[in-house]
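Researcher: Sequence recovery benchmark, item below. Answer with residues only.
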């Protein structure tokens, strides 16, 4: 990737922290200032002018400027190899920021600006390109720039983008006449309550500490690829550990990567559904083919320099990642002991590219829809660890009420009331808030549990300050309880 280093560096404390953590030697006469165009640049002032920046002549020490540029470029070229995701579509992507607005072509820099401004967005490029190619019978290779001019794609037909499009202002109950029923009463309490009452945080703590040691987990970089490979190996090691001595179990457990057009793959682990009767009727096979999804996203991003800035992502979304991983590990233990044998297929998803506009989850959701997969519901966990709150505020579980399914959200509240010590409180998180929106938008049930009822509570996210020391593992384990309860109660047919 070509990079104009000094015109792109951000004038904030997170940036300077990133540079220090990259072990770059920063001369003490560097000043970072904002430009009127909302970009940022590094200016090198003589030392005597540092205290009088306003009105100064902005003399530049070109020697230090060149040295810093060399160091930045060296860091990009050697430490973190960037993919060609944006080059595949001529460095423009089709971005939606509202369900009611047409998408717009935006450059990579435009997208980074949206993220810095806190604007939630969905990258819908692949959906539109697929529609365009299908209508023109030109195949499906979007990486070939010779097929068409990317700007020529008609985006006027906004309603044809997705199979379903729902209002971002309020939750709407998706038409579920063809979907399996959700439980309205929890019938596995005698099994689940002893399990969740004995949960510990040691494995979660160890995993998150290691996961956040990656410099960042940016989705189109070698860091993102390496962190995903590490996570998949950790999941596979759990499967090997807990299934090697339970060969008598009919439930098959697997994990694999789901690859995308960017470097970081998503991860899908699954417990294959097994009917509880010896009958081989079509009805039993149909139940086994139904899928229950528990999910989080694995990538992280530095809002200022996404591809190489430090982004440990402990809360966003390392917390969700290890929350559902602990649920997965616990279910493996129960499988080994003969206490977990779901009739339906129960899948755990760790999505790549959430920070790029819900890229990974959109790919997976569209794949399932194209292949007519029956998804009973998708329960998503994005940020479950931050628990610093005013003394007059209760520790709670947030239930997202927009771009979600009413019925599944009601079940989430029931799971919390039954299996967690925490009460629930509703919140809206806006358009394209997280990966639940990808499933909701193509017509599947989705719900999302959040760490509190205030989206702005954790100001550390997307920066080097989102570290393990800022999350509360005892808070996180309450969300693990929800995932375990969901796997039991929905993983078995009514």
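Model:
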């Amino acid at each position: 990737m070509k990079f104009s280093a000094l015109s792109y560096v951000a004038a904030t404390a997170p940036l300077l922290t990133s540079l220090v953590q990259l072990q770059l030697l920063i001369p003490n006469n560097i000043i970072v200032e904002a430009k009127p165009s909302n970009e940022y640049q590094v200016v090198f002032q003589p030392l005597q002018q540092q205290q009088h920046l306003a009105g100064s002549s902005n003399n530049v020490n070109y020697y230090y400027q060149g040295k810093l540029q060399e160091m930045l470029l060296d860091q990009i070229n050697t430490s973190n190899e960037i993919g060609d995701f944006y080059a595949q579509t001529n460095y423009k992507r089709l971005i939606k920021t509202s369900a009611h607005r047409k998408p717009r072509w935006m450059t990579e820099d435009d997208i980074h600006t949206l993220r810095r401004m806190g604007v939630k967005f969905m990258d819908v490029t692949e959906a539109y390109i697929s529609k365009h190619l299908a209508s023109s019978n030109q195949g499906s290779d979007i990486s070939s720039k010779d097929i068409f001019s990317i700007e020529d794609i008609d985006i006027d037909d906004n309603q044809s983008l997705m199979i379903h499009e729902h209002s971002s202002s309020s939750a709407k109950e998706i038409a579920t006449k063809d979907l399996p029923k959700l439980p309205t009463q929890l019938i596995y309490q005698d099994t689940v309550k002893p399990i969740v009452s004995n949960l510990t945080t040691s494995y979660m703590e160890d995993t998150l500490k290691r996961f956040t040691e990656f410099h960042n987990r940016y989705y189109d970089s070698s860091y993102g690829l390496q962190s995903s490979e590490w996570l998949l190996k950790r999941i596979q090691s759990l499967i090997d550990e807990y299934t090697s001595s339970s060969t008598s179990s009919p439930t098959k457990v697997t994990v694999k990567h789901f690859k995308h057009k960017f470097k970081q793959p998503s991860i899908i682990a699954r417990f294959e559904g097994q009917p509880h009767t010896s009958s081989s009727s079509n009805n039993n096979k149909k139940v086994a083919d139904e899928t229950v999804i528990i999910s989080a996203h694995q990538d992280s991003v530095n809002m200022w320099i996404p591809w190489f800035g430090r982004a440990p992502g402990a809360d966003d979304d390392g917390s969700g990642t290890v929350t559902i991983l602990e649920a997965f590990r616990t279910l493996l233990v129960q499988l080994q002991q003969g206490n977990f044998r779901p009739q339906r297929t129960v899948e755990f998803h760790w999505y790549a590219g959430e920070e790029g506009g819900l890229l990974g989850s959109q790919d997976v959701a569209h794949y399932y829809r194209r292949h007519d997969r029956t998804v009973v519901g998708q329960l998503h966990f994005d940020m479950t660890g931050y628990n610093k709150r005013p003394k007059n505020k209760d520790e709670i579980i947030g239930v997202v009420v927009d771009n979600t399914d009413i019925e599944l959200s009601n079940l989430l509240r029931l799971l919390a009331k039954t299996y967690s010590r925490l009460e629930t409180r509703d919140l809206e998180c806006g358009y394209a808030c997280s990966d639940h929106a990808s499933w909701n938008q193509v017509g599947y049930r989705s719900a999302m549990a959040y760490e509190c009822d205030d989206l702005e509570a954790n100001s550390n996210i997307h920066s080097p300050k989102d570290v393990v020391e800022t999350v509360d593992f005892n808070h996180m384990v309450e969300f693990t309880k929800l995932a375990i309860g969901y796997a039991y109660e929905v993983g078995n047919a009514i």
